[in-house]
Amino acid sequence: MPARTGAAIAAGLVILISTALADPSGDPSAASSTDGLYSDARGNPTYRISKDGTVDWYTSIGYLRYTANCLQCHGPDGLGSSFAPSLTDALQSLNYSQFIDTVTNGKQNVSASQDLVMPAFGTNPNVMCFIDAIFVYLRARSDGALGRGQPANSAPRPAGYTAREDACLG
Ligand code: HEC
Fold first, then answer.
1. CA angle, corner 74, sides to 120 and 109, nearest 5?
2. Domain residues of the chain, as ranges?
3. What predicted TM-score, i.e. pTM, was given to this entire model?
4. Is the shortest distance between the CB of 109 and ligand 1 below 6 Å?
């Protein structure tokens, strides 16, 4: 292969890698959906935001559940507080499965001078039944696709949503 072609390919790879670093779960574009929950090409949950700002149902639920369960420590809109780090920053380096693992099992930063403890939510249905919604909301915030505050418009509730939520909450 001519050297110049090789260099062009290498340059292309650098661009691809730096794009991937910004969202460790990969390209957030919605590739498929199951009853209103969108997935990217790798199968990770993702958001879908129309040009007019209307968010998918799960992103709007994620905002509400984040606000109810995480804001007290992680601050409004995922921006962090004196109690806990910014999650819009955290999702620049944590991928979907690492996020799920941390929320399920918790985390304690033993090297910090203060005792910073992330509780384990694995047995809390009010968090775990909505964990994909919380993830897609924070993914949209971290990617810069969604601004601060409650999304003004949401896609309608998917047909099977209420039954699934009831079954999960038990
Ligand atoms: C009682 C306070 C508290 C609540 C409530 C809380 N967190 Fe945390 N969280 C923390 C602290 C403190 C850390 C930092 C722990 C560390 O660095 O060891 C943390 C860390 C995390 C991390 C890892 C960040 C990183 O960079 O590794 C994620 C992800 C996370 N929290 C998600 C959530 C989500 C989602 C919720 C709501 C369902 C939530 N947290 C609720 C206190 C909290």
1. 55
2. 3-169
3. 0.89
4. yes
